[in-house]
């Protein structure tokens, strides 16, 4: 919920700004969709933060898909790409040829970064492909901006003269559509090398682009194995099932969780079956939900020490239980079978 607040505020401000500027509906929807996917991507970045050599609980956390120590070049090109995207989207007709050429060049490089990031995310061993939606959308948007820019440009570009003669000469040479396109393509390697050299002055490796992807684990270009996973802490609704009034919480049987015996009731089974469903559909979303559930649920479970507190928690959880059950019956072929198999029964 804390993460949703800035998202809602930003979306609200964007809606207000778009309405005030009378931006066409299609562009407004594109911008809002882009913002939504970006924040979804940020959620994944916030969850998948651990280096490949650290042991984690994969239910709650994930491994970084861009190695943090080599991520500076990705951040720089991310910023440059979006600056170029905004300039060419909204001000292409007012830009001089040199800026247009550099903007197109940066977009070409950005398409490459988006492409390799898509391959990195789609190659995940944990099914985190949903994160690839943002770079995929960004790639398509960048490609459409490039095509629209080149298509809409006149054969000969006009530009304001500058007091610097060398700048006027460059703009004049780039004032035709063909010259602009060719120069933007030719500039890809020099611009990339120049930015890489500048970043090397700040300690970045010359091969940071590849190392950022390979010095990871469980992703598409990963070259490392991770340590054994840590055991998962489990479900805090077990506290309710164990401490609540039997007439209310209706314990069914003993079960096993993490090699420990626990009391299982139907509410716990349904919640765990729903969690399993989310994990199957979207491991990234599951990790986000589980991480926050563990963070706040553990503190809550420590406060549930009396029978009446367990009973109250059970009652408050009922609407969620019904929602979980509705989802299970909607998306599962055999929901009751999925519910029944949650937590193996201990037999004497």
Characteristic key phrases:
348 residues, mainly alpha, two-stranded parallel sheet, two-stranded antiparallel sheet, 16 helices, 4 strands, 64% helix, DUF6688_C
Molecular structure report:
The structure is a single chain. The protein has 348 residues and is mainly alpha-helical. Helix content is 64%, strand content 5%. It has helices spanning 4-21, 25-47, 72-90, 97-122, 133-152, 165-173, 177-186, 188-200, 208-214, 237-243, 246-249, 266-281, 283-303, 307-316, 318-331, 335-340; strands spanning 48-50, 62-63, 251-257, 260-265. The radius of gyration is 27 Å and the shape is elongated. The chain crosses the membrane at residues 29-49, 70-90, 96-122, 129-151, 178-202. Pfam families: DUF6688, DUF6688_C. Residues 25-229, 234-344 form the DUF6688 domain. Keywords: Membrane, Transmembrane, Transmembrane helix.
Shape: elongated
Helix-strand sequence? HHEEHHHHHHHHHEEHHHHH
- Number of DSSP helical runs: 16
Number of separate domains: 2
InterPro entries: DUF6688_C, DUF6688_N
Keywords: Membrane, Transmembrane, Transmembrane helix
Domain DUF6688: 25-229, 234-344
Transmembrane segments: 29-49, 70-90, 96-122, 129-151, 178-202
């Amino acid at each position: 919920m804390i993460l949703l607040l800035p998202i809602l505020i930003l979306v609200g401000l964007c809606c207000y700004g778009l309405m005030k500027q009378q931006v066409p509906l299609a562009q407004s929807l594109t911008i809002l969709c882009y913002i939504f996917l970006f924040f979804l991507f940020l959620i994944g970045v916030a969850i998948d933060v651990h280096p490949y050599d650290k042991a984690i609980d994969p239910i709650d956390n994930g491994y970084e898909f861009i190695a943090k120590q080599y991520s500076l070049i990705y951040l720089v090109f991310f910023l440059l790409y979006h600056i170029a995207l905004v300039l060419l989207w909204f001000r292409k007709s007012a830009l001089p040829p040199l800026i247009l050429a550099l903007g197109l060049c940066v977009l070409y490089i950005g398409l490459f970064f988006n492409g390799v990031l898509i391959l990195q995310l789609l190659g995940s061993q944990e099914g985190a492909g949903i994160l690839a939606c943002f770079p995929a959308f960004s790639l398509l948007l960048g490609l459409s901006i490039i095509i629209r820019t080149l298509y809409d440009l006149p054969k000969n570009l006009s530009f304001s003269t500058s007091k610097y003669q060398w700048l006027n000469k460059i703009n004049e040479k780039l004032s035709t559509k063909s010259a602009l396109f060719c120069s933007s393509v030719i500039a890809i390697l020099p611009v990339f090398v120049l930015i890489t050299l500048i970043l090397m002055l700040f300690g970045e490796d010359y091969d940071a682009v590849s190392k950022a992807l390979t010095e990871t684990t469980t992703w598409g270009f990963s070259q490392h194995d991770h340590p054994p996973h840590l055991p998962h802490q489990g479900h805090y609704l077990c506290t309710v099932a164990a401490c609540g009034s039997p007439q209310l919480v209706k314990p069914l049987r003993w079960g096993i969780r993490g090699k420990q015996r626990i009391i299982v009731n139907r509410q716990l089974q349904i919640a765990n079956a729903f969690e399993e469903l989310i994990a199957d559909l979207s491991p990234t979303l599951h990790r986000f939900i589980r991480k926050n559930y563990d963070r706040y649920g553990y503190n809550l479970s420590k406060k549930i020490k009396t029978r009446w507190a367990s009973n109250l928690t059970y009652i408050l959880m009922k609407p969620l239980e019904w929602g979980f059950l509705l989802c299970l019956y909607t998306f599962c072929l055999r929901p009751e079978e999925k519910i029944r198999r949650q937590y193996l029964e201990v037999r004497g």
